[in-house]
């Protein structure tokens, strides 16, 4: 490990994985393919859950 590399926590790695899967799901939805069976349903559910969690967090902070 070089001096400029930071170690990531498990929570940070999990967050990076979640964001990657969410972006992958968005990319699948944006593809011009007419067959939506190619969309990973687990990643799509994760995307919806991620946005729901973020919305709840921001809403709580605003109140």
Question: How would you explain this protein's 3D organization?
Answer:
The chain is mainly alpha-helical. It contains 2 helices and no strands. It has helices spanning 10-30, 41-62. Helix 1 (10-30) packs across helix 2. The longest helix is centred in the C-terminal third of the chain and has 22 residues, at 41-62. The protein is flat and about 45 Å long. The termini are far apart. The mean pLDDT is 86.
Radius of gyration: 16 Å
Count of helix runs: 2
- Give unreliable regions as ranges: none
Shape: flat
Strand count: 0
- Share of residues in helices: 55-70%
Count of spatially separate domains:
1
- Main sheet overview: none
Instruction: Give the overall pLDDT as a whole number.
Output: 86
Beta-strand fraction estimate: under 5%
SS content category:
mainly alpha
Give the SSE order as H and E letters. Answer: HH
Distance between the termini: 43 Å
Summarize this structure briefly.
With about 60 residues, this protein is mostly helical. Helices cover about 70% and strands about 0% of the residues.
